[in-house]
Design a protein that fits this description.
metal ion binding, Rossmann fold, six-stranded parallel sheet, Dehydroquinate synthase-like, alpha domain, alpha/beta, ADH_Fe_C, two-stranded antiparallel ribbon
Length: 395
């Protein structure tokens, strides 16, 4: 087990009706003027936005509404938010929505207090924020784990580059998690969310060569099993509170570093998918991950078949073949692929969108490899050519 530092300072309020406490919670911290950041019309149609603003009004807290976030949130909108925060004297950002809204809010928080720095420099590792506006969230989609994580992913429309970076400034002050707010999420987005949750743990579990992490492994395996069970229930019964609650809590635990403690890893599939949905913004992140993951697994598993076999036996319930562990590993990958298909998730790039073209694979690999200057470490190192191979295998 490697050395590690674990710190998740986000306060979590979990359960029914917790979103109605938001005004009281913000007042406890003494904030005076809030930017309420959200996406499209769903929070308005559902009445959630009104409930949030009513709670703020009851506590005498001023607020400014700022909507418009789309899947794969953009730098241009975040920059608008930064300027609005400065003009209005905002001292706190409240994100109401899914991971895209939360990531947009984090970007706004970083940029508002650092007007002299181009915020894109944070994403290309040329600068790092040492201060940011405090922020919190009300989650409406179980998926990204951004509600408690230190990550933030943004798309720069100038070149369609999708990049992320980690920072202590990204840890929200609080996260309000009411599973009831996810009842209306459609089957496709719920499936995408389940995939994203699983990938955050699978990529930690399979993303490196670290040995001897038995406790972390068991935590990861338990989370994966729970998500698969809950995902199957919600696919048939969208308003099953307990299953929705499992997915929501798993989303937070899967990406707040818990399921990878003591392990060195690189999220290779996430890196590959960022180029996919960066080039094709219509592609949902979770769908892109499910379309890539099993092909990636088959491409790299020969380098460490026992690791994949362990996953196959403990999570996918495959009987161990001790003479040929690779067969066990491949059967586990097959069963995972069958699970994705059972919740109507794509398992090939060709299933995603008619616009996905094989000739773009080299473009995506060029971007992912930083023009051929970067390789992705892991069970099998991926350079530019290997990235192209995975894209083609997944097609």
């Amino acid at each position: 087990m490697n050395n590690f530092e674990y710190c998740v300072p986000t306060r979590v309020l979990f359960g029914r009706d917790t979103h109605k406490q938001v005004g009281t919670v913000i007042k406890e911290y003494g904030f005076k003027k809030v930017l309420v950041h959200y996406g499209g019309g769903s929070v308005k149609k559902s009445g959630l936005l009104d409930q949030v603003t009513d709670s703020l009004k009851e506590q005498g807290i001023e607020f400014v509404l700022f909507g418009g976030v789309k899947p794969n949130p953009t730098l241009s909108l975040a920059k608008e938010g930064m300027e609005l925060c400065r003009q209005e004297g905002i001292d706190f950002i409240l994100a109401v929505g899914g991971g895209s809204v939360l990531d947009s809010a984090k970007c706004i928080a970083d940029g508002t207090l650092n007007p002299e720095i181009d915020p894109w420099k944070y994403f290309i590792k040329e600068a790092s924020p040492d201060k940011a506006l405090p922020h919190g969230n009300i989650l409406t989609l179980s998926a990204s784990g951004s509600e408690t994580s230190l990550s933030c992913v943004i798309t720069n429309e100038d070149g369609n580059y999708k990049r992320g970076f980690n920072s202590k400034t990204h840890r929200p002050l609080f996260a309000i998690l009411n599973p009831e707010l996810t009842f209306s999420v459609n089957k496709f987005q719920t499936g995408c969310g389940s995939v994203d949750i699983m990938m955050h743990t699978l990529e930690r579990y399979l993303g490196g060569n670290t040995k001897d992490t038995p406790l972390t492994d068991r935590i990861a395996e338990g989370l994966l099993t729970s998500v698969m069970e809950a995902g199957a229930i919600v696919d048939k019964d969208p308003k099953n509170y307990e299953a929705r609650a499992t997915l929501m809590w798993a989303g937070s635990l899967s990406h707040n570093d818990l399921t990878g403690l003591g392990r060195e890893f690189m999220m290779q599939v996430h890196q590959l998918e960022h180029e996919l949905s960066g080039l094709y913004p219509c592609i949902a992140h979770g769908a892109g991950l499910s379309a890539l993951f099993c092909s990636w697994s088959r491409y790299v598993c020969e380098k460490d078949p026992m690791r994949f076999a362990q996953l196959a036996v403990r999570v996918m319930k495959v009987e161990m073949d001790f003479e040929e562990p690779l067969k066990t590993a491949l059967k586990g990958i097959d069963r995972l692929e069958e699970f994705f298909q059972s919740i109507k998730m794509p398992v090939r790039l060709s299933e995603l969108d008619d616009a996905v073209r094989e000739e773009d694979f080299e473009v995506m690999a060029e971007k992912c490899s930083f023009n051929g200057t970067r390789s992705l470490p892991g069970i099998r190192t991926l350079g530019k050519q290997e990235m192209i191979d995975v894209y083609r295998m997944a097609y």
